[in-house]
Amino acid sequence: MKWKAVLGCMLLWGISLGHADRAVTDAPNGQNVFVITLDGYRWQELFGGADSSLINDPHFTADTSYTKAMYWAGTPEERRERLMPFIWNVLAKKGQLMGNRELGSKVNTKNLYFLSYPGYNEIFTGEADPMIASNDKIKNKNQNLLEYINKLPGYRDRVAAIASWDAFPYIFNKERSGFFINSGNDPVHGHELSRTQVALNQIQADPAYAEDHTRNDMITFLSAKEYIRKNKPKVMFVGLSGTDDAGHAKKYDQYLKNANDADRIIAGLWNMVQSMPEYKNHTTFIITTDHGRGAHPETWYNHGFFVKGSSQTWIAMIGNKIRPLGEVSQDGQAYQRNIAGTIGYLLGVRTYSRHMLPLTLFEPEPGTMLARQ
Ligand SMILES: [Zn+2]
Fold first, then answer.
1. Pairing of strands 159-163, 326-327
2. Average pLDDT of the chain, as a whole number
3. Residue 53 maps to a domain
4. Stated pTM of the model
5. Is there a domain that residue 370 lies in?
6. How far is the CA of 288 from the centre of ligand 1 (A)?
7. What's the CATH number where 125 sits?
8. Residue 118 lies in a domain
9. Ligand 1 mean position, distance from CA 303 (Å)
10. How far is the CA of 310 from the centre of ligand 1 (A)?
11. Measured in angstroms, how far is the CA atom of residue 346 from the centroid of ligand 1?
12. Domains in the chain: how many in total?
């Protein structure tokens, strides 16, 4: 990748924005953006499929023969396709993936803590905050992009977050930010709940399904689908937690299953929006993770400042404006903090685009020669 050219583009672009009329550039441009996160999902499995040392270790994989029957194959390419068939059969052909370090493509957290709250703060504010160093449930002082967009004309009540982890009301500062947030085992509130929403509230309340800090990703998925059907948000966050939960539990078989479920969820959301006129052909998905995990077979289940490999993440994109580059194989370095600015760029909300991914990854704007270098 020609970084100097990209830098040149961004400088030019930044200067031209300085003179742009904010009211015009920030009005909805017809584009929708979905952000989907797989908490603590390693690039090693995304790009290489199941790890031989972990899938064969009965300490981490209770039933090695069954799990291998599900997810093992001779080559990394076959293994990753078995684990995440939508990502590798659809997204990799129509979109792009960054973060395969074997090919020189690197994505990292800019924050130094490699924990969830600092990671999601960085994704949604576009900056790493050195003062956010733990997952403590403290109301975030930082304004996030979703909150910012929800206040713009044309976006009010068209921004939503539905997530498995119950810390998001703090990360997004629900009291202050004012957009729809539903997470953990919180029921969906409202006067006009659909039958599906009432049923999901009942399932969540059942002690058989209730977990400590996260709800099952499949309930989050069904809840997100119902919200999309009813409310048609322009900007939507779906936060999945199963991969991190299984990692901490040291259950590699469950970690693989939850990754496979996440692939099915992404496919389900993609197919849903492609069948709706409000979304078809003008919606982009950005899929990423909040942090990596240990790179070693003895540390894979953990993450944090002292666990080597935890800063290593990945970003996948598909949809409108995304060039079909597939697996990015040039040397390059992206950061988690580039995502907020990229969402702003896609929506035309340029007042929020401090850091973004290189413009060469996107289809050129009509009438510009700059984007293709
Ligand atoms: Zn974790």
1. unpaired
2. 91
3. yes
4. 0.91
5. no
6. 15
7. 3.40.720.10
8. yes
9. 6
10. 10
11. 30
12. 1
Distance CA(196)–CA(29), nearest Å, equals 31
* Cβ atoms of 104 and 315 closer than 8 Å: no
Q: With pLDDT > 70 as the criterion, what percentage of the chain qualifies?
A: 91
Q: How far is the CA of 125 from the centre of ligand 1 (A)?
A: 20
At position 265, the amino acid (one-letter code) is: I
**Boundaries of domain holding 71:** 3-361
Cα 362 to ligand 1 centroid, rounded to whole Å = 32
Task: Output the CA 89–ligand 1 centroid distance in Å.
Answer: 29
pLDDT surpasses 90 at 112? yes
Q: 129: which 2 tokens? A: 């905050």
Instruction: Give residue 350's pLDDT.
Output: 76
Angle between helices 252-274 and 217-231 (to 10 degrees): 10
Domain-located, residue 367: no
Reduce the DSSP state of residue 325 to 3 states and report it: coil
H helices of the chain, where? 3-18, 22-25, 43-48, 52-55, 64-71, 76-83, 85-86, 92-94, 116-125, 145-150, 168-171, 174-177, 195-205, 217-231, 242-248, 252-274, 338-347
Question: In the numeric block, which tokens belong to residue 79?
Answer: 């293994």
In the chain, at which residue ranges do the beta strands (DSSP E only) sit?
32-38, 96-98, 105-108, 159-163, 180-183, 235-240, 283-288, 312-313, 315-319, 326-327, 332-335
